[in-house]
Design a protein that fits this description.
33% of the residues lie in helices and 26% in strands. The strands form five sheets. The protein has a six-stranded antiparallel sheet with strand order 8-7-6-11-10-9, with helices on both faces. A six-stranded antiparallel sheet has the order 14-13-12-17-16-15, sandwiched between helices. Strands 2-1-5-4-3 form a five-stranded antiparallel sheet. The relative contact order is 0.07.
Amino acid sequence: MNNIPKRADDILNLHINGFHQYIFDDTLHLSFVSRNFCEMTGYEEDELLDESRDSYALLVDPKDLKIYSSLLDKVRLQKEASAKYHLIKKDESLICVLDTMTCIEDEDKLIVSSYLTDISEFETDNEISLPANENISYLEALSEVYDKIFEFSTSENTVKCLYCDDLSMFKQFKNIPMSLDEALDKWIMNSVDKSDRETVRSFFADFRSNRFCEPVAKPPQINYTALASDNVYRQYGGIFIKVNDSTGYFCCRRIHESSEVEELKNQTIRLKEKMKDLVMQFSDGLAAFELTPEETVKPLYASENVGEFFGYSKEEWLLLTKTYTPWKDFVSRSEASYEDFINFLKKGEEEFTYFDYKTETEKRIRAVCTQKDLYAKSPRYVVLYSVDEKVEKSKKEIPENRNVSIRTFGYFDVFVNNKPIAFKNKKSKELLAVLTDRKGGFVSSEEAISYLWEDEPANTLTFSRYRKVALRLKNTLEEYGVSDIVETVDGKRRIVIEKVNCDLFDYLSGKEEYSQLFKGSYLNNYSWGETTLGELINS
């Protein structure tokens, strides 16, 4: 037991699924067994901790000894391994277990931690599935931001440490499920400062009651003081990330005292804590990606919605995760400009607008980077998350008589009662320009796509983008009380020329009073306007 930290001793004796430890030196023998392991096998602790023999190997069903031996070999080489086999209990009955082992070096010996899950009830011939690579990549990105990451499972009533530093007491039982209630009670009583214990207890009680899983819930955050690995009380910040209805990540990090470091970290913490608002509502959009000093980017993870924010299909995004792409190319399809992206990297944080395809509404997405140095000499990690608070927007006061004016000669702009419409989305403004250029004729989805994304074919992804752009245009016009200037029939759209004043329409009317409107420039914002420009010049 001298290899187990004193403060960890109590935790290891909780109801961890069949937890035990081996020591590899000249021989292999058990050095620790939990109460739960004894109950699972039916043996007493003294019977199992017999250093004269490998007591555990005697429990393995003889037909599964090769599996068990192979597992030991793997964990020595890979430091982590998992396998399914059978154990013979003291009453000679068989149980099927999933054994997950982790290995650490301690001077001249190896210490292997193992925990067993009794899967007899679910025993099949299929291999046990292991965590998906994308989840591992996502956790790697989170580990760049937080000091410790714990997985809470309300369905299994367990908690396990997924990530921590080498000096942490939790290192000894990383990836080992522990009884949720007992582990929390022990940690709060042994580590959390007395003045914060009730606050912390209430915080986790809220998680247990699933209040944090409600769609409109604010990000669950907490600051508290607890013992650090140096046995000194330090201040920490923590937040919950919802993974699914029964699982969440509790991520925490030390809040440093240096004012300069504090300012930088607080920027990161604020955003990342809001970031979990997105993680709390996983479908709304979440991403993490790595930036290299060579100005390339490699996505680690993204929900479908965020992939679309960057302009990629799910299949295209998966391809991106296998290689490094230049920054400029990576953001070229998104509605955020390359300049916006560079400004974000300089500032370390930024907000952008994205479209939630499930609710068909615009929301805000927040991006945060782990370092503010634009040309850092080591990789940087970026996380995206939703900061939409679902607050009802106050409606603009709309005058009863609304006059819509459209300017096409020069740069395209639209005015309502002489005040310009502030389009929040560049593509929705461009769509209105396309409809204006068609002079009242209907424009199909395919035709509009050929204008809005000139270098891309009409496919599932571009049709999805177009639907969002069209809905954004509709919402913007409604906001200004002029939605009736665009008519939609069977998916085709046109501008209702009778309801707008437009310099192009006036000029083409042939009336003498409008003959001087055209000065040789037309829709300077858009390259596709050159076709009509040529017609105007030659007319």
